[in-house]
Write a structure and sequence with these properties.
The complex is a heterodimer.
Chain A: H1 2-8, H2 17-27, E1 33-36, E2 42-46, E3 55-61, E4 66-72, E5 78-83, E6 95-98, E7 103-108, H3 117-121, E8 130-132, H4 138-142, E9 150-153, E10 158-160, E11 164-167, H5 170-182, E12 190-196, H6 204-213, E13 217-225, E14 246-248, H7 258-270, E15 276-278, H8 287-290, E16 299-307, E17 314-317, H9 318-334, E18 344-345
Parallel strand pairs in A: 3-12, 3-13, 13-16, 14-15
Antiparallel strand pairs in A: 1-2, 2-12, 4-5, 4-9, 6-7, 6-9, 7-8, 10-11, 11-17, 14-16, 16-17
Chain B: H1 2-10, H2 19-29, E1 35-38, E2 44-48, E3 54-60, E4 65-71, E5 77-82, H3 87-90, E6 94-97, E7 102-107, E8 122-125, H4 131-137, E9 143-146, E10 151-153, E11 156-159, H5 162-176, E12 184-190, H6 198-207, E13 211-218, E14 238-242, H7 250-262, E15 268-271, H8 278-282, E16 291-297, E17 306-309, H9 310-324
Parallel strand pairs in B: 3-12, 3-13, 13-16, 14-15
Antiparallel strand pairs in B: 1-2, 2-12, 4-5, 4-9, 6-7, 6-9, 7-8, 10-11, 11-17, 14-16
Helix pairs in contact in B: 1-5, 5-9, 7-9
Classes of the chains: A alpha+beta, B alpha+beta.
Chain lengths: 347, 329
């Protein structure tokens, strides 16, 4: 299954090769042109059927949050730093896979009875953690692990409950999976599907891709935060699981094009597909770079709600995923006839 | 001066929602410019053609505000910030939505100490009974600006949104002046400055000017117990040397200083330790654009009571006009 294959692949920011290879294989034969650009983005092109085609860019990032090796202790333990936004509290006792050969390890910390009272009260810092790969000493560890090796989480894909799944990296393999499916059909508009790199470390691939494609319109397809859980007040939750894809209004990196967002919302409503607005303004995504590229690009974002995002165990509803896919597809069918003003000449 | 500035500050225009203020500026300047366009992000670009250098003057037309994130059963609106909002400045202020709905910002009184006050613990009361009534007026995603009347107080003006309708005013006055400009001038009223200099970035890309000057408000150090800063109200417009977004290009800094001296216009030099302006985005666009900032010393920035000196404003108009008329080799 596509989503399982994509989320189980390793692709910590800057090291998207494995994910890229899967995507290239999946979209092979469905596009009119495929390039991997110099920063590592895949830009897949599918010509439209209309006479005067609108240039539409879909964007989903291939990379995921993870860790990177920063040192090896004399006793053979691996020291590391986060890549992308990680709450250090989710790391302890997690299983990880290091480097190309996926050397297994487990994240550890000295036992609670050895911690100072002050250490026990505060969140444990990454600098005090280590990864245990079972090595005898530094020399032994160096046979398998090297400075700068990427570290991904080891987390199975598990269907559970009411049509939910648990896996790692739903942010944003869920977007990648949707883009792959979208490339299997042809639309009136010219479609450019950008699978971007390094979103988690600063939206780096997306700006480059948007500059190359220079589309008339862009839609970012994402996995987004969902805190409909005990302890969070209702007004603090950005999205609800099972309530359909979430359309962004505003976040830390962009203010969505209002007409595009409304278009998406109404498309879903008209077709009886569950949909919600992302209510809070935290976080950001590739839209932040895309919309200010060149002379400016009308951009919107649609996301599948994911609980425990940026952890090894994110949870998503397959119904939300299917609904998101449908809305993106309706968007691609409808966008050619939707008027988007780029420049307005007054005088 | 008073009438135009009054109208500009009272226009509705939180970041990302600049339609009303843009329409107002279009009406105000249409007759005085050669070209007038709105770009894909919503920036308003006015051109006065000339043969000299291509110079971009930028002033952002957006203002800070609040965005509705959730409507409580009882009809209270939860909100997030649009731009740099302080919870302390916001408390018990009035806010106004695009459709005219006015609300008051309150807070959860169970908070024990004011230092724990944050926007998540605050709400807007629009005087309705319940969610159903609230939804007749307001939707999640609607944006309000603060209420702060414009008034003249001695030689000073106080209002909401002088950041940066004052910059817009200065640009409009230069556009309207009958001076014989010798350069190709682009007056850009930018969007979303308060969210990260976004409109300035794309408009500078489209225009690719030879030089750029942003006009914006800046802090002062002239109130009791204020932080140390060598700027005072009434000592002239400020020529920026540095802030967090730009170190003014020496050519532009000298251009502003020399022009002020030539024309006997008072000025002050500004080093702002925090904050940035549109010039921060403009100067690193494409291959680099020598840029600077003409600032107006302003008290109580990002509150509904921003306060400036009238003479500083007049002198800023004079200085900017003189720069626009300058002949470059």
């Amino acid at each position: 299954m596509l989503l399982k294959m994509l989320t189980q692949a390793m692709g910590v920011s800057g090291n998207e090769q494995e994910v890229r290879d899967i995507i290239l294989k999946e979209i092979h034969g469905h596009c009119d042109g495929i390039t991997v650009d110099r920063i590592g983005n895949i830009i897949a092109y599918k010509k439209g059927t209309a006479n005067k085609n609108k240039k539409v860019m879909l964007s989903a990032h291939m990379d995921e949050i993870g860790l990177i090796v920063t040192g090896i202790t004399d006793t053979g333990f691996i020291k590391f730093k986060p890549v992308g936004g990680i709450d250090s509290r989710i790391l302890l006792s997690k299983k990880v896979l290091i480097g190309e050969n996926k050397i297994p390890g487990v994240i550890g910390i000295k036992a609670i009875h050895l911690q100072d009272p002050s250490e026990r009260e505060k969140a444990i810092k990454v600098k005090n953690m280590y990864i245990d790969i079972g090595a005898k000493n530094k020399e032994d560890a160096e046979k398998n692990v090297h400075l700068g090796d990427y570290i991904g989480f080891d987390s199975d894909y598990i269907p559970f409950g009411d049509n939910l799944i648990k896996t790692k990296a739903l942010d944003d393999r869920v977007g990648c999976a949707i883009l792959i499916d979208m490339l299997k059909e042809r639309y009136a508009c010219d479609l450019y599907a950008a699978f971007t790199v390094q979103e988690e470390v600063g939206l780096r691939g997306a700006g480059v891709a948007a500059y190359t494609v220079n589309p008339d319109v862009a839609l970012v397809v994402e996995g987004t935060t969902c805190s409909d859980v005990p302890g969070a007040e209702e007004h603090e939750s950005a999205t609800y699981l099972g309530s359909g894809p979430a359309i962004s209004i505003m976040d830390r990196t962009s203010y969505s094009n209002k007409k595009l967002s409304q278009f998406l919302y109404e498309l879903a409503k008209k077709n009886n597909i569950k949909v919600q607005y992302k209510r809070t303004t935290f976080g950001g995504n590739d839209a932040g770079k895309i919309h200010v590229t060149g002379e400016g690009i009308p951009t919107a974002a649609i996301s599948v709600p994911c609980r425990y995002i940026h952890s090894p165990t994110s949870v998503m509803s397959l119904e939300d995923y299917e609904a998101c896919k449908k809305v993106v597809q309706l968007f691609l069918y409808g966008i050619e006839n939707f008027e988007i003003k780029k420049w307005e000449v007054i005088k | 001066m008073i009438e135009l500035l009054n109208k500009l500050t009272q226009c509705y225009g939180p970041s990302g929602n600049e339609e009303v203020i843009r329409e107002f500026i279009i009406k105000e300047i249409k007759e005085y410019v050669d070209e007038l366009v709105v770009d894909p992000l919503g920036n308003l670009i006015a051109r006065k053609k000339g043969n000299g250098k291509k110079i971009m003057f930028a002033a952002h037309m957006d203002e800070i505000g609040v965005i509705v994130t959730y409507i409580e059963k009882e009809g209270f609106l939860r909100f997030a910030n649009v731009g740099g909002i302080s919870p302390y400045f916001s408390l018990f202020q009035r806010v106004k939505f695009k459709n005219g709905t006015i609300g008051v910002i309150g807070y959860e009184e169970k908070i024990k100490e004011m230092k724990d006050l944050n926007i998540d613990k605050m709400y807007i009361d629009i005087g309705v009974k319940n969610r159903e009534d609230a939804e007749k007026l307001i939707n999640v995603g609607d944006v309000a600006c603060f209420v702060g009347d414009f008034y003249e107080n001695g030689n000073k003006f106080t209002s909401k949104a002088l950041d940066n309708r004052l910059g817009c005013y200065i640009l409009i006055e230069v556009i309207k002046s009958s001076a014989n400009f010798s350069n190709d001038l682009y007056f850009v009223f930018t969007v979303q400055e308060e969210l990260g200099l976004r409109g300035a970035k794309t408009s500078a890309f489209s225009i690719t000017p030879d030089y750029a000057i942003a006009v914006d408000v800046t802090d002062t150090g002239d109130t009791p117990g204020s932080k140390t800063m060598a700027l005072e109200l009434g000592k002239g417009p400020a020529i920026k040397v540095k802030d967090n977004s730009i170190i003014t290009h020496p050519f532009i800094k000298n251009l502003m200083v020399d022009t002020a001296k030539e024309k006997n216009i008072p000025y002050q030099l500004e080093v702002l330790e925090r904050g940035g302006t549109d010039a921060g985005a403009i100067h690193i666009t494409k291959g680099g654009i020598p840029s600077g900032v003409l600032s107006i010393a302003t008290r109580y920035i990002h509150s509904p009571c921003e306060t400036v000196d009238q003479d500083d404003v007049k002198n800023a108009v004079l200085l900017l006009s003189a720069i626009a008329s300058k002949k470059f080799n």
